[in-house]
């Protein structure tokens, strides 16, 4: 029974590390509810999930239709959404103090990065919220009374975290440009939680932070390249106009 409780805890890692031994639709409903609740608390934005399907005996789970809302001052309804997340859990690790998830794959996510005229961006605002909220959560945990061994957060490491085929929208309309689309090469992050792992209740926030940070980094590269090309085009137009006036 203890091993099953630990196993369920792994599948609930994104949901704040809660662990209850449930089966079938009950555990799926719990995970869905907790992902939405904890995701909203961590990001400061509404998080919604279409469905969850956990296969406990196979060491696998699927989460579908997760949507992270955009901060209100931005245009797009969502900042990040995904079709499907799959988890591959190392069952042998369940007999140890460190639970290992071999791989988490986010399939074909969609991200919208809106830049503002004052050097702001929606993704940066969300990352700031994650940093603030996870820091305060960590402080609360540090100040809380110590838990008994049976209640302690499982320690988890993710060996590989893959964002597969991110459909990126870069909105530069507030910078006098337009909306651009790109499909990013797969983003692979390794050893999330470090060799020693980290408490399951903190891992969801860390995964969100690293995923959105990686996407935002790519979006800033796109923005820089686009604006450089825009500046070149304007310079060419200016020179062309000057030469025409000479003629």
What's the story with the biggest beta sheet?
A: 11 strands, mixed
- The amount of helix comes to 40-55%
Query: DSSP helix count?
Result: 4
Low-pLDDT stretches are 1-22, 144-151, 238-243
The helix-and-strand class reads alpha+beta
Shape: elongated
Q: In sequence order, what are the helices and strands, one letter per element?
A: HHEEEEEEHEEEEEH
- Report the end-to-end length measured between terminal Cα atoms: 88 Å
Radius of gyration over C-alpha positions, nearest whole angstrom? 21 Å
Q: Report the mean per-residue pLDDT as an integer.
A: 80
- When the domains are counted, the total is 1
Multimerization state: single chain
Q: How much strand content do the residues show?
A: 25-35%
**Strands, total number:** 11
How would you summarize the topology of this molecule?
Elements: H1 2-11, H2 24-43, E1 47-48, E2 51-55, E3 60-69, E4 78-89, E5 98-107, E6 110-114, H3 122-143, E7 155-164, E8 167-171, E9 179-183, E10 187-192, E11 198-199, H4 200-246
Parallel strand pairs: 5-7, 6-8
Antiparallel strand pairs: 1-3, 2-3, 3-4, 4-5, 4-6, 7-10, 7-11, 8-9
């Amino acid at each position: 029974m203890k091993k099953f409780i630990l196993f369920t805890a792994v599948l609930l890692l994104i949901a704040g590390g809660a662990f209850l031994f449930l089966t079938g639709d009950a555990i799926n409903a719990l995970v869905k509810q907790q992902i939405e609740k904890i995701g909203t608390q961590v990001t400061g934005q509404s998080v919604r999930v279409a469905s969850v399907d956990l296969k406990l005996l196979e060491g696998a789970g699927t989460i579908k239709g997760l949507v992270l809302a955009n901060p209100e001052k931005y245009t797009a309804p969502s900042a990040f959404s995904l079709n499907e997340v799959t988890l591959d859990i190392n069952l042998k690790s369940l007999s140890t103090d460190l639970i290992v998830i071999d791989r988490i794959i986010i399939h074909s996510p969609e991200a919208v990065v809106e830049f503002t005229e004052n050097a702001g961006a929606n993704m940066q605002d969300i990352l700031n919220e994650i940093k603030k909220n996870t820091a305060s959560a960590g402080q609360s945990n540090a100040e809380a009374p110590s838990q008994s061994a049976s209640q302690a957060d499982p320690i988890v490491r993710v060996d590989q975290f893959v964002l597969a085929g991110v459909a990126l929208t870069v909105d530069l309309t507030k910078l006098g440009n337009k909306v651009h689309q790109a499909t990013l090469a797969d983003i692979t992050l390794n050893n999330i939680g470090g060799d020693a792992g980290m408490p399951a209740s903190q891992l969801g926030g860390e995964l969100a932070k690293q995923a959105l940070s990686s996407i935002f980094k790519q979006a800033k590269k796109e923005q820089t390249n686009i604006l450089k090309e825009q500046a070149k085009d304007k310079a060419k137009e200016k020179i062309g106009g000057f030469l025409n006036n000479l003629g």
